[in-house]
Structure formats: structure tokens, C-alpha cells
């Protein structure tokens, strides 16, 4: 059957409409004789987590004109019998930032049903850049992609998105690490009071220009050098808005619970919402901590902190190969890090730390190279242990050589999480679905790496593997986690729901066949089962193929004015 009675899990039901700002009127008929687009006879999952109903949807321009029994004809009509019709998916933690300018078709994103990317994550946003940072980025994108970078902060990036109109819409957080790098630099030291004041002003400025939260990347430099007081001070600039403090915490393995306590503490003391980024418990010796993490987040909510988390549907993470080494080793930039690896005084301690990280993951084959250039490009897609054996090198020596030869710029995938925890995190009522991935395509410049498959398959994988095959949550619950739950977290009252007047972001998929096809060994593969995607009223995916019509736009927050207001992409 096309519509199964899946196990319930993670849905909030129709009560979820209460937070969406206006009364629900989902079952009304269109009064106009002709609409831009009409989707007929679909099984409608409206995003609230409530039970599905069969009906039609009429689209007029960039808005949903009617939901229910639509008498009006459409300039384009879609027969959705036996198909699920849902709000377009919102990726609450995306890294499809500048890649949307390299290939605006955003192939790996929109073919999943994603219609809105929330970028600027893990403490790294598109500016604000110094003169040197801007020039370096501009020159690299000219050289590598023939793309002109003509902006230097989040507001300018959003303006460029409005001009380019890629396949997906874009919202952005402001990155703490980017701000700290501009104001403090790469030094391992606390920020001074004047520096904190300057960083707070930059956060305020970014919010005024449309940022929808503050993100941190506390395992990365220079964000890792921030004190808790600094984080509270900067997060405090979100007070009076609906926007969250989104944290890639200091640690996600042996010190996970302490790191989680810090993230929740920042939200509690600053008086702001918290979004724990890609919650995980890495390493077999830490898998038991998932229940303790759930308990901590639930307790924070009970105490008044608006806390949620997100997670991608895979047991492996992706990061830089340099993250096998502790943050202090990376202080001061890449050149200093590489010098420490070669220095007889510091190298032994760094080797011990790296080997301990590998022991946590289980073996050198738990590390797969994703992105590397220069003389070792053939290492792309290979497991470190296997490659070292083939070359007759010690795996640690190979790791150092790859980093040295590539100037420190090497990407990796680490296999360290349990399947059981992954399933439970995805199904938890406070969890949202994210990709934590970038935009790719199996052609052109975005095909040059061997990326984590999450960039191609996260949302179809949840629908196919965790809903249909595993029964970990209901289909309506999964859609809720991908649509209205993240929309509400960001105060986007006109997105994430199938409702008259909402932005016409819509995905039509077959619940019996939707699945991811991308794998760790062969990641550049589009998913199956996503038949139609409409972005801001633009029919971008039709019968599983891209039409070439792109409807994305910038979705801006409204700073402190956002409380009780309706942030919009218009």
C-alpha cells in the first residue's frame, strides 16, 4: 500500500499549528478559475505531524492558493495519486554555501526534496572577512570555479543569492569562528573585553542584515579558543529574537556530556534558544552516552530552555584530516600546525593524540579520504589503513605526509557512531533531520571530491530506510522533522507547512520507492522516488528530472523585530 500505518515517533500532531502564527485553514477550495500549478489527488502530509489526508493543492505565483478540493484548473497539472505530498524539506544544518554560486542548479540538494538550506554552520559563515580574507576567497573562486565573489559578509551573500536565484532558497547563521578570526585572529587566548564588544557588534550587524542565528564550531580553530563567558556574551545578542544559538560542541566523544552541558548553559544564561548541531556519541566506548544526552536536553527544556538538536542519517561524520589532532596543535594557522608536526619537540605528543583518536574510532580504516589535491589526489576515496598497507607506509606517517603535501587541506570521513543511536536520535521528538553536507553534482567542478553521501541522500534515506524499512518513526513524523519543526525553530511562519498563504515549497515523492543511492564508495548518485519539487512556486524537478527553472531566494531574518513577526524571503 502507498500509505502505511507507520509506527509513531517524533510528531507533535495538529497542535503544532499553534506556533505557526495564524489559524489553520487547510481544507478550502480555490475561487479563481485558473492557477499556476495544481497538484491533484495526493496524500497530503501537511508538515504539522498530523495524519495525512487526500486532496489537491493549488499554487498561484510563489504561494499556496488553496488546499483541499480544488476546482480551478492549473497551467500545469500534476496527478499525484498514490504519492506523498509534503512541504519542501528544510535542511537546518547545511554547508551548501558558496557551492550554490558554482552550480546554481544545486543538483544533489533539490533532488532530495530540499527547498531551503540553512548555512553558516559550525562557526563558519560567509564573512565578515578582512581584506586579506576577502581577497583570498575571491582569488580562489576566480581561479578554481570562474566565480566572482563581490561581497564580504552574510548580508552581501544573501543579496547575491537573490540575484542568482539558485534552485534552493538560502538562510544563513553568523559564524562565531569567522567573527573571532576577524577580531582576535588564530591565537589560543581569551578575547579581551574590547574584542568581545566588537564581536557582539558584528553579531548585531549580521542579525540586522538577515542572519537567523549564531553558530559555533568549538572543535575547530579559532572557535575552540573561546571561553564560556565569550559564548554567553555573543549569544546574548540573540535575546529578544526567535533565533537559536546553534553549537557544534567542543567534543562529541569522551567529553560529550561536558560539552553538551556547556551548550545548554550558554542558552540558559544568555536567555536564548539552543540547537545542538549533529548530536552524536562517537566511539564505541561512548555509545552509552546517547541516553544521558537525551536526558540533559529534555531537562533543559523542562527548565525553560528552547532546546532541540539535529542529526544526519549516517554512522560516519565528515571533517578535516587535521581534526585527528587536538585544537591547540592547530592554533595560529596551517603553517604553524605543519611545523609542529615536524618539530621533534612537539611531534611525539601529537602522534600519541592522533593514535588515541584512531583507537577511539577503532582502526585506521575507519578514516576515509574525501578531498585532497596535489600529488596525492589518487588517495581520494581510499581508507587510510588500506592505502598505507598498499604503499608500505605506517598509517600515521602517511597521514602526516598527506597533510604536508596538501598544505593541510585534506578532507576525511570518520566511522564512529552506532546504528542504534543514529536511529534513536532521528526518531527522538526533539530531533530534526539535517544533512551537514554540501551541494554536489556528478559532473563539473562539484564532482571533483569523494564526499560524504549525506550531501546526496540524507532526506530520502530517512524516508526510505528509517521510516519505510525500519519503522523508526511515522511518515508524518519524519516530514514534520524536515519541515515545520525547523521552520518554527527559525521563526519562519510561512514555510514548512501545506497551508493557504504559505510559500509554495512542495515535494512530491513515492513513499514506496523513495531511497538514497549515494554510498561512501560511490557518493555521486541521485536518490530515487522524488518526482516533483516546487521551490517558491517554481516547478524545479518534474517527473524526477530538473527543468532548468530555478526559484530559490534569500530568506532573511528580521533581527530583534522577529519576535512575533513573520521572517520572509520576499
How is this structure best described in words?
There is one protein chain. This protein has about 575 residues and is of the alpha/beta class. The protein has two domains: about 1-180 and about 310-315 and about 415-570, TIM Barrel (Alpha-Beta Barrel), CATH 3.20.20; about 330-410, no CATH class. Helix content is about 30%, strand content about 20%. The strands form four sheets. Strands 1, 2, 3, 4, 5, 18, 19, 20 and 21 form a nine-stranded mixed β-sheet that branches. Helix 8 runs parallel beside helix 9 and helix 15 runs antiparallel to helix 16 (about 475-480). The chain is globular and about 80 Å long.
Keywords summarizing the entry:
6-stranded parallel β-sheet, alpha/beta, globular, 9-stranded mixed β-sheet, single chain, 18% strand, TIM Barrel, 570 residues
Amino acid at each position: 500500500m502507498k500509505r502505511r500505518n507507520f509506527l509513531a515517533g517524533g510528531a507533535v500532531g495538529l497542535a503544532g499549528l499553534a506556533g505557526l502564527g495564524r489559524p489553520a485553514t487547510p481544507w478550502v477550495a480555490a475561487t479563481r478559475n485558473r492557477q499556476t500549478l495544481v497538484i491533484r489527488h495526493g496524500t497530503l502530509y501537511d508538515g504539522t505531524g498530523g495524519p495525512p489526508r487526500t486532496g489537491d493543492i493549488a499554487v498561484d505565483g510563489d504561494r499556496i492558493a488553496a488546499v483541499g478540493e480544488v476546482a480551478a484548473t492549473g497551467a500545469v497539472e500534476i496527478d499525484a495519486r498514490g504519492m506523498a505530498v509534503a512541504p519542501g524539506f528544510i535542511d537546518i544544518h547545511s554547508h551548501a554555501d558558496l557551492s550554490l554560486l558554482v552550480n546554481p542548479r544545486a543538483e544533489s540538494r533539490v533532488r532530495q526534496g530540499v527547498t531551503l538550506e540553512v548555512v553558516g554552520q559550525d562557526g563558519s559563515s560567509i564573512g565578515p572577512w578582512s581584506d586579506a580574507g576577502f581577497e583570498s576567497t575571491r582569488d580562489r573562486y576566480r581561479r578554481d570555479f570562474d566565480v566572482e565573489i563581490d561581497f564580504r559578509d552574510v548580508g552581501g551573500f544573501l543579496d547575491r543569492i537573490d540575484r542568482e536565484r539558485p534552485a534552493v532558497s538560502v538562510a544563513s547563521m553568523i559564524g562565531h569562528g569567522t567573527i573571532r578570526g576577524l577580531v582576535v585572529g588564530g591565537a589560543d587566548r581569551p578575547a579581551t573585553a574590547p574584542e568581545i564588544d566588537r564581536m557582539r557588534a558584528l553579531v548585531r550587524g549580521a542579525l540586522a542584515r538577515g542572519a537567523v542565528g549564531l553558530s559555533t564550531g568549538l572543535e575547530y580553530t579559532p572557535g575552540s579558543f573561546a571561553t564560556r563567558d565569550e559564548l554567553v556574551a555573543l549569544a546574548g545578542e540573540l535575546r529578544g529574537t526567535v533565533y537559536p544559538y546553534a553549537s557544534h560542541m567542543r567534543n562529541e566523544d569522551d567529553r560529550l556530556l561536558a560539552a553538551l552541558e556547556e551548550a545548554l548553559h550558554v542558552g540558559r544564561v544568555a536567555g536564548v534558544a539552543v540547537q545542538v548541531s549533529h548530536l552524536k556519541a562517537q566511539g564505541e566506548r561512548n555509545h552509552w552516552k546517547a541516553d544521558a544526552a537525551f536526558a540533559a536536553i529534555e531537562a533543559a527544556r523542562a527548565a525553560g530552555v528552547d532546546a532541540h538538536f539535529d542529526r544526519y542519517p549516517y554512522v560516519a561524520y565528515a571533517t578535516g584530516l587535521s581534526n585527528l589532532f587536538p585544537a591547540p596543535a592547530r592554533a595560529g594557522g596551517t603553517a604553524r600546525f605543519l611545523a609542529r608536526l615536524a618539530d621533534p619537540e612537539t611531534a611525539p605528543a601529537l602522534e600519541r593524540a592522533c593514535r588515541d583518536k584512531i583507537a577511539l574510532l577503532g582502526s585506521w580504516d575507519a578514516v576515509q579520504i574525501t578531498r585532497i589535491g596535489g600529488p596525492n589526489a589518487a588517495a581520494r576515496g581510499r581508507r587510510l589503513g588500506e592505502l598505507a598497507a598498499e604503499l608500505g607506509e605506517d598509517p600515521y606517517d602517511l597521514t602526516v605526509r598527506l597533510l604536508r603535501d596538501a598544505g593541510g587541506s585534506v578532507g576525511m570521513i570518520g566511522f564512529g557512531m552506532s546504528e542504534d543511536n543514529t536511529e534513536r536520535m532521528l526518531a527522538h521528538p526533539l530531533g530534526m533531520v539535517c544533512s551537514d553536507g554540501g551541494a554536489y553534482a556528478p559532473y563539473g567542478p562539484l564532482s571533483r571530491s569523494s564526499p560524504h553521501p549525506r550531501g546526496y541522500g540524507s532526506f530520502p534515506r530517512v524516508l526510505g530506510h528509517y521510516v519505510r524499512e525500519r519503522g523508526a518513526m511515522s511518515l508524518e513524523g519524519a516530514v514534520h522533522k524536515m519541515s515545520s519543526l525547523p521552520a518554527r525553530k527559525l521563526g519562519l511562519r510561512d514555510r514548512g507547512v501545506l497551508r493557504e498563504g504559505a510559500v509554495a515549497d512542495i515535494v512530491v515523492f513515492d513513499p514506496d520507492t523513495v531511497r538514497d543511492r549515494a554510498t561512501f564508495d560511490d557518493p555521486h548518485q541521485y536518490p530515487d522516488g522524488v518526482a516533483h519539487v516546487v521551490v517558491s512556486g517554481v516547478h524545479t524537478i518534474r517527473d524526477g528530472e530538473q527543468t532548468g527553472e530555478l526559484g530559490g531566494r534569500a530568506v532573511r531574518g528580521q533581527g530583534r523585530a522577529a519576535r512575533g513577526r513573520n521572517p520572509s524571503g520576499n
